[in-house]
Amino acid sequence: MSTKSPHPAAEPTEESSQHIWLAGLGAMAKAQSQGTKAFEALIADGLAFQRKTHSAAQEKIKEATQHLSHLATDFGQQTTGRIDRLEHLFEDRVARALTRLGIPSLADIQALQQRVADLENQLAAKAKPQPASRKQPSQAVAKAPSPKPTAKRSAPKAR
Predict the structure, then answer these.
(1) Is residue 157 part of a domain?
(2) CA-based, 20 to 30 A from 74: which of 2, 25, 47, 93?
(3) Contacts 24+ apart (CB under 8 A), 83-91
(4) Which region among 18-27, 59-68, 148-157 has the lowest average model confidence (pLDDT)?
(5) Are the C-beta atoms of 65 and 75 separated by less than 8 Å?
(6) Which of 115, 117, 122 is nearest to 144 (CA)?
(7) Residue 134 DSSP one-character state
(8) pLDDT tens digits for 6-37?
(9) Complete DSSP assignment for 14-70
(10) 17 belongs to a structural domain
(11) Is the distance from CB of 99 to CB of 105 less than 8 angstroms?
């Protein structure tokens, strides 16, 4: 037996290895062709996700801006109300202090001015010549005696 016959198990192993090698090459070829498609699909999914998150972020920013604007408006109104109350309180206290000192208010001065104007109108109406008496205008208007200046009384000097 000088000739060696190949071992029967050796043949399937070589063939099996060849098949494994070819299957690996086929998988790699398939991965290359479908890998580009998978990569493009991932890019499309990423863009869709980016748009969705950008839209959500814009909505959150809009809500936050509206909320802050509302808070600022409320704060401004509260501040204005407090300033108005403080101003009225100050005006009332100043008016009371001036009243205690005997200084007339603006309303008092305006009332006096109106009263003086009314009295002037009454005097002017009385001073007009009556149509029944045919006196000359110079005689009809009698001058009222001018008030004499009164001497100011000075307080007694403290010695």
Answers:
(1) no
(2) 93
(3) none
(4) 148-157
(5) no
(6) 122
(7) -
(8) 555 455 688 888 888 888 888 888 877 787 78
(9) HHHHHHHHHHHHHHHHHHHHHHHHHHHHHHHHHHHHHHHHHHHHHHHHHHHHHHHHH
(10) yes
(11) yes
> Is there a domain that residue 42 lies in?
yes
Instruction: Extract the tokens encoding 126.
Output: 């009385």
Q: Is 95 exposed, middle or buried (0-12, 13-18, 19+ CB in 10 A)?
A: middle
| Length in residues, the chain | 159
**98 neighbors 88 (Cβ within 8 angstroms):** no
- Whether 47 maps to a domain, the answer reads yes
Only one residue has tokens 């409320």, namely 74
Predicted confidence (pLDDT) per residue in 88-128, tens digit: 999 899 888 888 988 888 888 999 999 999 999 999 999 88
Q: Which two tokens stand for residue 33?
A: 């062709």
Max intra-chain CA distance, the chain: 182
Domain count, the chain: 1
Q: Are 108 and 119 in contact (CB under 8 A)?
A: no
